[in-house]
Design brief:
The chain is mainly beta. It is 5% helix and 37% strand. The strands form 7 sheets. The protein has a 4-stranded antiparallel beta sheet with strand order 1-2-3-4, with no helix packed on it. A 4-stranded antiparallel beta sheet has the order 5-6-7-8, with no helix packed on it. The protein has a 4-stranded antiparallel beta sheet with strand order 9-10-11-12, with no helix packed on it. Strand 18 and strand 19 form a beta hairpin. The longest helix is centred in the N-terminal third of the chain and has 20 residues.
């Protein structure tokens, strides 16, 4: 045993030398899995602040007509994804997605920035904006940092109630920008709860803060296979031997899967569940053929995507639905106050990805998995206009040119 250890110690320097001598092409490449950026850049005059996500740093550049010059750098929390210039103009606040924190960086000397405070917030914070001398930060509601002693008595703090019905999953932490709290982790003025899961983007016109739910959905759900009737396109039945939640209420289900029941090789298709979408007009869950599956899904589903919050009172003043399936970022038009929301809309009811030539109602998502859009919201009237960014594509041509 001692001899084996001695040989290992003798050979260790040799192994290190061999590794150092390997050419660069022989070394393993580095794969980054860092969190996605939300607001990675902030420009203040000629100073550009940039989050260096894989290295957990804030980088500072001097801009000029000739290009960029890196003049400062400081370590912040883990995986920063957003940065914003504070009202004081001598601070920038950095949102750390993995650390569940916000780093307040003193940039009065840009070449020597330093972190002066670390605020603890909710789970996986994403974005930050300033309005009415307050900082607004989007976080998921999963319980992290919601019970530490310094935020006792704050509206929205305390028991995370992760399994309590009716408790929203989307939080916005609000801090006084000039005085974020003297205790450990800071003390928020309030934690605003929104109806949604995982908020992401923020935007403001100075008096109103807009918050968007990231995976807001488009009111689609799945009827489980155990409730869809056996067979394909069959007559109405009482379900596939399974009683739906709260019973069927004396009503039948509309039949089996729409089909096709076989593939092009005449092999039987498996029994599977079915995607349905909530019809706001009728209050019913309908499949691609318009059949009512409400006896199989005993709940309703809202589609609230964007929320307006008064930056002074911190009250929700309006919300907007049917903006998109996944919402990315937002910006307020400084001229007319309209809100621009980048998003994608997904045709979830379309079930196939083949060429769209087989079956009683051939459909396909080939080349049409989603539509990239910008939805323009007029906050005063609530009217919306979704602009498809790839209108030049003819989805009727397969394969897509």
């Amino acid at each position: 045993m001692l001899e084996r250890a001695r040989r290992l110690l003798v050979s260790l320097p040799v192994l290190i030398a061999l590794a150092a001598a390997l050419p660069a092409s022989a070394q393993r490449s580095f794969v980054a899995f860092e969190s996605g950026h939300v607001r990675p850049l902030a420009l203040d005059g000629t100073l550009l602040y940039v989050v260096n996500t894989p290295d957990n740093h804030l980088e500072i550049f001097q801009t000029s007509l000739s290009g960029l010059t890196r003049i400062g750098s400081v370590q912040v929390g883990m995986e920063p994804v957003s940065v914003a210039v504070a009202v004081s103009q001598n601070e920038v606040w950095v949102v750390n997605h993995l650390s569940d924190s916000v780093s307040i960086v003193d940039v009065s000397v840009p070449a020597a920035p330093k972190v002066t405070r670390t605020l603890l917030v909710g789970d996986e914070p994403r974005d930050i904006v300033f309005a009415q001398a307050r900082a607004f930060i989007t976080t998921a509601h999963r319980g992290q940092h919601r019970t530490h002693a310094s935020i006792s008595g704050v509206t929205g703090a305390g028991d995370p109630q992760l399994t309590t019905a009716g408790v929203s999953r989307a939080d916005i932490w609000v801090f006084d920008a000039a005085s974020p709290g003297a205790g450990f982790g800071g003390t928020p003025l309030e934690i605003i709860e929104l109806f949604g899961d995982t908020p992401r983007a923020l935007a403001t016109d100075g008096s109103t803060v807009y918050a968007a739910i990231f995976h807001s959905g488009n009111q689609t759900a799945v009827v489980s296979e155990g409730i869809v009737c056996d067979g394909f396109g069959a007559a109405p039945c009482a379900g596939d031997g399974v009683t739906s939640p709260n019973g069927l209420g004396g009503g039948n289900l509309p039949g089996g899967n729409p089909g096709p029941s076989t593939n092009h090789e005449i092999l039987d298709a498996p029994e599977v569940g079915l995607v349905v979408q909530y019809d706001n007009t009728s209050g019913e869950w309908r499949d691609e053929g318009g059949r009512n599956w409400s006896n199989g899904i005993r709940f309703t589903l809202l589609d609230l995507d964007v929320f307006a919050i008064d930056a002074t009172t911190l009250n929700e003043t309006a919300n907007f639905d049917h903006v998109g399936t996944i919402l990315f970022n937002m910006a307020v038009n400084p001229v007319n106050g309209n809100l621009y929301v980048t998003n994608v809309e997904s045709p979830n009811l379309t079930r196939f990805e083949g060429p769209g030539t087989f079956g009683p109602s051939p459909t396909t998502v080939q080349g049409h998995l989603s539509e990239a859009r910008i939805t323009v919201i007029e906050p005063g009237s609530g009217t919306m206009d979704a602009r498809h960014l790839n209108k030049h594509i003819d989805y009727g041509v397969l394969p897509a040119p």
